[in-house]
C-alpha cells in the first residue's frame, strides 16, 4: 500500500502490504511449438501457457538457478473500474484480500509466509491488482493453498470488524504517503484536471478519505463477485519447478474455483484535454517550489509509447539534453529535471517535473522549459544521442528480469494486458527500432503547442513563486483532532460461516523437502598495490556488477565540515582530467553501463553495472574517474547548490527529521556520526573545492580498499583486467580517526519536534548497540527477527493488524565498524500518538519475558529459509563480498551463521534481548503536530518532554 512506479511498463502501483494454479484444463499453445516464447538472438522468456476450465490463464517459467519459487496473480481490475463516491476501492479490496480465507488460518496471509522464509506483497494501479510471493521451494504447496484460497474462498470471512480495521490501515497509508509528505496532493490535482470527471483516471488509486470511510461489507462482496473471478486473472509461477507436476497442482488447487461473470474490456480513452490548465497550492510540508507539466499521450503497448520514452530521455535524460542544459547548467534554477512517459491501459501521460532551488520563481522555471522545447526543435539531436539510449536497452532488459519474482510479475502483466507473456522481448525490439523520424513525429503530435496541465506547488506562505495566472486548486484535507475519537478498532471475532464444499481437500499441505542456503563459491586475490579482490562467478544473466570500496567515507570528514566526503564522491563522477562531464556521461551510456560514486557512513564506493562483454571498457572508465579527477570549479558550485537544495528539502521529511535527531542524540555533538553523512546546511556552507582535494589526497588509497565483482566472468578475466589499476594506483597509508562514544545518559528521554497540522506522527526509539565485528551482532540480528523483521513481526502485528494505527512498524539492528544503533520506527495516525507510544513501550518491555520456544522456531525458520532467496540477485551477492572484506568474515560466514542460529536456545534469545534491546535504555523522538499531540506525549513521558527544532536545537 503506497504508490511506486514500475518503469518497464510505467505502472503506477499502490503496494499492498509492508516492505515490500489436469484433466479439465484446456491447453492453449502460444505462438511457436509447445507454447514457448519466441526467442531472439540475445534474449528470451521461455514459458508454457494453459487455461483452466474456469478461465484462469496460467503461465509457467522454469528457472533452476536458486531453490525458490515466485507466484504472481494479476487480476484485471484497478481503480479504473470504480465509481464516483467509491474511489480507492480496488486498492482497499486488495488490503481486504490479505486478511482471512475459508481454509487458511487467521493471519496466514500476512504472517506465515514470512515465517516460512518468504516474502509477499501486492499492489494496485489504475488498471489492475497484483498479488505475489517468493518462497523457498519447500513452501511451494503451501503457497498454492494460500493463493488459491485467497482467490476463490475469502469473501465469506470478511467481517465488519475486519473492514473497520482495514479502513483505518488504508487511511494511515494515505496520510503517511500522501497527506503528510511534501507534494502529496499533486497527483490528485493533476488527475482531476487532466481528465473529465467521468473518466476512470480522474481520481487517484488511493482514493479519498470520505470514500474509504464509507466502504461497506456489501461493497466488498459486490466487488469480489464482479471482478475476482479466475477468468479475469492471470497466474504466473516461476522458478525451481517441474512443469508437469506444477500443472497438476494448479488444477488441483485452482480448478474448482467458480468462474466469475465476464468483465467487458474498457476501450482506450485519451484524456481529451482542450486547453492549458495551470493550478497551484501552498504545501504545508514542502520547503522547495515544484513545477510539473503533464501532456496527454497514448495508451500502453501502442507503438508511439516507445518513441515517447526515447523522447523523454532526449529532452531531460542527460547533461546534453536541452532541458538539463538550460534549467541546471545555464540558468541554475534547479539541481535537476525529470521527464518520462507514463503508459496505462486507457490513456498515457508525458510528465515533466522540476523541483527548483529555494525561493526560485516557477514562472522562470516554466519559461526555461519553453526555451528548452525551442532548443530541441531548432537544434534537434545527434545520432550519438539515439545510440546512447539504445545501448542501455539490453542492459536494462536483463536487469529488469534478474529475479524470478520480477520475471513472474512482468510476464503476468504482459499476458493480462497485452496477451503475450513474453512481450518484453518485443518491447526491446520496438525500442531499438525507433527512428529519428518517429521521435520528431511524437514530439509534434503530443507535445508541440499541445494543451497540458501544470501544477505549481510552493511552500506555505510563498504564493509569490507560483506561475503567473495559476488558479488555486481546492484540496480536501483531513483535520487533525486530539484523542482517538471513534476510530479505535481491533481484531474482532472470527467470521462464522459454512465452508464451501469442494471435491479436493483444502486443508494445509505439508512442507516439501527443506532447501538449505549454501554460500556461492567466492574467490579472492590481492593486487600488488594492496587492493583486495573478491569475486563470484555468476552466469545467470550476461551482466556484471562490481565496485571499488574505499574505507573512510563520512567517518573521515573533517570535524565541522560533514559532507566533504559526499561532495568529493560526487565530484569524481563529474568528468575526468581527459573528459568533460558530458563526455564521461556519453562514454558510459554508449557502453549501456551505469557508474555511480557515493559516500556512505564508513566508505567511498564506486559502483558499476554493465554487460559482461563490456567489463573491460567500463572498468577503464571507473579507473579514469578514480585516478584522474577533473576538479571542475563550475561543477563543484553546481553540486554544492544541489546539496543545499536537497538538505532544505529534507527538512520537510518527518522520517528524515526523526532519524537525524535520534542519531545526533545517540552519538552526541562531538562524534562525526552525530551529523548525517550528507552534512547539514551549516556544516556544508564553508566547504571549498580545496577541502575535497585534500580529502582525496589523504583518504583515497588502495590501502585497506577492496574490489568486489559478481557476474559472468571468471577469476582470470577479472584479474587480467585489473592489472592497470594495480600498477597505476599507488598505495599510501590512511590514518583513521578515533572518536569516543559519549556516555549514554539520555536513556528514557523523550523529544518532540513540531510539524504543524501533521496528519501522522513519526515515532523513533533507539539506543547504541554493537560494532559490526562483535560476534554478538549476529545473535542480536536473529533476536530481532520476531520483533520487527517484516510484517510478521510483533510490532506490525500489534500496531497494524490488531489496532489499525499504522501502515507498518519495524525494528532493525544496524551493522557498522563503529557501534551502530538498534532502532524502532513507525508512522501512526496523529490522534493515536500517545496510545502507540504506550503500546511500543509495553511490547518492548515484554519482548524478552514473553519470548517462547515457538518464537525460537519462528526466528530460525524465517532466517534459515529466507536465506535461500535473500541472496538471489547480483547486488545481494555483492553485499556478501562487502561484508567479507569489511569485517574479515570467512568465505562460508553465512553458513557458519546458520549453524550458530541452529545452536541458539531459548535462553540464548532471552539473554540477547535483555542485553541489547532493553526498553528502559531507549531514547524516543516524536515528530508530529504539537497543538494536538504534545499533551499525550507528555503523559507518556511523565511530563518530561524536550522540545527540539528540526535541526536539533532546543526550543524554549
List the helices and strands and how they pair.
Blueprint: E1 3-6, E2 11-15, E3 26-27, E4 48-51, E5 57-62, E6 68-75, H1 89-97, H2 108-115, E7 119-124, E8 129-136, H3 140-152, H4 160-179, H5 186-194, H6 209-213, H7 217-227, E9 233-239, H8 243-254, E10 277-283, E11 290-297, H9 304-316, H10 322-330, E12 338-343, E13 348-355, H11 362-379, H12 383-400, H13 404-418, H14 423-432, H15 436-446, E14 453-459, E15 471-472, E16 523-526, E17 532-537, E18 543-551, H16 564-571, H17 581-590, E19 594-599, E20 603-611, H18 615-627, H19 633-650, H20 654-667, H21 681-684, H22 689-699, E21 706-711, H23 715-728, E22 750-754, E23 760-768, H24 776-788, H25 794-802, E24 806-813, E25 821-829, H26 833-847, H27 853-870, H28 874-887, H29 893-903, H30 906-916, E26 923-928, H31 930-940, E27 945-948
Parallel strand pairs: 5-9, 10-14, 10-15, 17-21, 22-26, 22-27
Antiparallel strand pairs: 1-2, 2-7, 3-4, 4-5, 6-8, 6-9, 7-8, 11-13, 11-14, 12-13, 16-17, 18-20, 18-21, 19-20, 23-25, 23-26, 24-25
Walk me through the structure:
It is built from 31 helices and 27 strands. It is of the alpha+beta class and about 950 residues long. The protein folds into four domains: about 250 residues, Cytochrome Bc1 Complex, Chain A, domain 1; about 200 residues, Cytochrome Bc1 Complex, Chain A, domain 1 (2-Layer Sandwich), CATH 3.30.830; about 210 residues, Metalloenzyme, LuxS/M16 peptidase-like (Cytochrome Bc1 Complex, Chain A, domain 1, 2-Layer Sandwich); about 200 residues, Metalloenzyme, LuxS/M16 peptidase-like (Cytochrome Bc1 Complex, Chain A, domain 1, 2-Layer Sandwich). The radius of gyration is 28 Å and the shape is globular.
Amino acid at each position: 500500500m503506497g504508490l511506486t512506479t514500475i518503469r518497464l511498463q510505467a505502472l503506477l502501483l499502490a503496494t499492498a502490504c509492508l516492505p515490500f494454479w489436469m484433466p479439465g484444463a484446456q491447453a492453449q499453445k502460444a505462438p511457436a511449438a509447445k507454447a514457448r516464447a519466441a526467442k531472439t538472438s540475445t534474449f528470451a522468456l521461455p514459458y508454457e501457457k494453459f487455461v483452466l476450465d474456469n478461465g484462469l490463464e496460467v503461465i509457467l517459467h522454469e528457472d533452476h538457478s536458486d531453490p525458490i519459487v515466485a507466484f504472481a496473480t494479476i487480476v484485471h481490475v484497478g481503480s479504473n473500474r470504480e465509481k464516483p463516491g467509491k474511489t480507492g476501492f480496488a486498492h482497499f479490496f486488495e488490503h481486504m484480500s490479505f486478511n482471512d480465507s475459508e481454509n487458511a488460518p487467521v493471519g496466514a496471509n500476512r504472517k506465515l509466509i514470512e515465517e516460512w522464509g518468504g516474502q509477499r506483497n501486492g499492489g494496485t494501479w489504475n488498471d489492475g491488482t497484483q498479488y505475489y510471493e517468493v518462497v523457498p521451494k519447500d513452501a511451494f504447496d503451501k503457497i498454492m493453498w494460500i493463493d488459491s484460497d485467497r482467490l476463490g474462498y475469502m469473501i465469506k470471512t470478511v467481517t465488519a470488524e475486519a473492514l473497520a480495521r482495514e479502513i483505518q490501515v488504508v487511511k494511515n497509508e494515505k496520510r503517511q504517503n500522501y497527506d503528510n509528505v511534501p507534494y502529496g496532493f499533486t497527483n490528485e490535482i493533476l488527475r482531476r484536471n487532466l481528465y473529465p470527471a467521468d473518466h476512470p483516471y480522474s481520481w487517484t488509486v488511493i482514493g479519498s478519505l470520505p470514500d474509504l470511510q464509507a466502504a461497506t461489507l456489501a461493497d466488498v462482496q459486490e466487488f469480489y463477485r464482479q471482478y475476482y473471478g479466475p477468468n479475469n486473472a492471470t497466474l504466473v509461477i516461476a522458478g525451481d519447478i517441474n512443469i508437469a507436476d506444477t500443472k497438476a497442482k494448479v488444477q488441483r488447487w485452482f480448478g474448482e474455483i467458480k468462474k466469475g461473470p465476464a468483465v467487458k474490456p474498457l476501450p482506450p480513452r485519451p484524456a481529451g484535454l482542450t486547453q492549458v490548465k495551470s493550478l497551484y497550492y501552498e504545501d504545508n510540508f514542502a520547503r522547495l517550489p515544484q513545477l510539473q507539466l503533464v501532456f496527454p499521450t497514448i495508451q500502453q503497448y501502442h507503438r508511439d509509447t516507445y518513441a515517447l520514452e526515447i523522447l523523454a530521455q532526449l529532452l531531460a535524460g542527460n547533461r546534453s539534453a536541452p532541458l538539463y542544459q538550460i534549467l541546471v547548467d545555464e540558468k541554475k534554477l534547479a539541481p535537476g529535471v525529470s521527464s518520462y512517459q507514463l503508459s496505462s491501459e486507457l490513456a498515457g501521460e508525458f510528465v515533466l517535473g522540476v523541483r527548483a532551488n529555494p525561493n526560485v520563481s516557477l514562472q522562470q522555471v516554466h519559461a526555461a522549459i519553453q526555451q528548452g522545447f525551442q532548443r530541441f526543435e531548432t537544434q534537434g539531436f545527434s545520432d550519438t544521442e539515439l545510440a546512447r539510449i539504445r545501448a542501455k536497452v539490453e542492459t536494462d532488459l536483463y536487469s529488469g528480469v534478474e529475479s524470478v519474482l520480477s520475471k513472474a510479475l512482468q510476464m503476468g502483466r504482459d499476458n493480462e494486458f497485452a496477451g503475450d507473456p513474453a512481450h518484453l522481448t518485443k518491447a526491446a525490439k520496438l525500442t531499438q527500432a525507433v527512428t529519428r523520424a518517429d521521435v520528431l513525429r511524437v514530439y509534434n503530435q503530443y507535445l508541440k503547442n499541445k494543451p497540458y496541465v501544470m501544477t505549481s506547488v510552493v511552500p506555505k506562505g510563498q504564493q509569490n513563486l507560483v506561475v503567473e495566472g495559476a488558479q488555486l486548486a481546492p484540496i480536501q484535507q483531513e483535520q487533525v483532532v486530539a484523542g482517538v475519537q471513534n476510530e479505535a478498532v481491533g481484531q474482532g471475532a472470527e467470521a462464522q460461516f459454512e465452508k464451501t464444499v469442494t471435491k479436493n481437500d483444502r486443508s494445509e499441505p505439508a512442507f516439501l523437502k527443506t532447501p538449505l542456503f549454501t554460500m556461492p563459491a567466492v574467490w579472492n586475490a590481492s593486487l600488488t598495490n594492496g587492493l583486495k579482490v573478491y569475486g563470484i562467478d555468476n552466469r545467470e544473466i550476461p551482466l556484471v556488477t562490481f565496485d571499488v570500496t574505499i574505507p573512510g567515507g563520512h567517518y573521515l570528514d573533517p570535524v565541522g565540515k560533514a559532507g566533504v566526503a559526499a561532495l568529493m564522491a560526487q565530484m569524481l563522477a563529474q568528468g575526468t582530467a581527459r573528459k568533460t562531464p558530458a563526455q564521461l556521461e556519453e562514454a558510459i551510456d554508449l557502453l549501456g553501463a551505469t557508474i555511480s560514486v557515493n559516500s556512505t557512513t564508513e566508505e567511498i564506493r564506486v559502483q558499476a553495472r554493465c554487460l559482461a562483454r563490456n567489463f573491460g571498457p567500463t572498468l577503464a572508465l571507473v579507473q579514469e574517474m578514480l585516478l584522474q579527477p577533473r576538479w571542475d570549479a563550475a561543477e563543484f558550485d553546481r553540486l554544492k547548490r544541489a546539496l543545499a537544495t536537497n538538505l532544505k528539502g529534507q527538512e520537510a521529511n518527518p522520517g528524515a527529521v526523526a532519524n537525524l535527531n535520534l542519531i545526533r542524540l545517540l552519538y552526541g555533538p562531538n562524534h562525526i556520526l552525530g551529523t548525517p553523512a550528507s552534512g547539514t546546511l551549516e556544516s556544508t556552507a564553508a566547504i571549498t573545492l580545496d577541502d575535497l582535494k585534500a580529502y582525496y589526497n589523504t583518504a583515497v588509497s588502495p590501502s585497506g580498499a577492496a574490489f568486489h565483482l559478481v557476474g559472468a566472468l571468471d577469476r582470470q578475466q577479472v584479474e587480467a583486467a585489473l592489472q592497470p589499476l594495480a600498477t597505476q594506483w599507488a598505495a599510501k597509508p590512511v590514518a583513521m580517526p578515533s572518536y569516543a562514544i559519549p556516555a549514554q545518559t539520555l536513556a528514557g528521554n523523550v523529544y518532540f519536534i513540531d510539524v504543524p497540522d501533521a496528519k501522522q506522527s513519526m515515532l523513533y526509539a533507539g539506543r547504541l548497540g554493537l560494532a559490526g565485528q562483535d560476534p554478538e551482532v549476529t545473535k542480536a540480528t536473529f533476536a530481532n527477527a520476531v520483533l520487527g523483521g517484516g510484517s510478521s513481526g510483533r510490532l506490525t502485528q500489534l500496531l497494524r493488524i490488531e489496532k489499525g494505527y499504522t501502515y507498518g512498524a519495524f525494528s532493525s539492528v544496524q551493522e557498522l565498524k563503529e557501534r551502530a544503533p538498534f532502532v524502532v520506527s513507525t508512522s501512526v495516525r496523529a490522534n493515536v500518538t500517545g496510545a502507540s507510544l504506550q503500546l511500543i513501550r509495553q511490547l518492548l518491555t515484554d519482548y524478552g519475558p514473553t519470548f517462547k520456544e515457538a518464537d525460537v522456531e519462528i526466528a530460525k525458520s524465517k532466517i534459515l529459509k529466507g536465506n535461500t532467496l535473500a541472496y538471489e540477485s547480483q547486488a545481494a551477492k555483492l553485499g556478501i563480498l562487502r561484508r567479507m572484506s569489511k569485517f574479515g568474515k570467512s568465505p562460508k560466514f553465512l553458513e557458519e551463521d546458520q549453524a550458530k542460529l541452529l545452536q541458539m536456545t531459548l535462553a540464548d534469545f532471552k539473554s540477547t534481548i535483555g542485553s541489547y534491546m532493553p526498553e528502559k535504555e531507549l531514547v524516543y523522538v516524536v515528530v508530529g503536530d504539537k497543538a494536538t499531540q504534545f499533551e499525550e506525549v507528555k503523559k507518556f513521558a511523565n511530563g518530561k518532554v524536550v522540545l527540539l527544532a528540526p535541526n536539533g536545537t532546543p526550543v524554549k
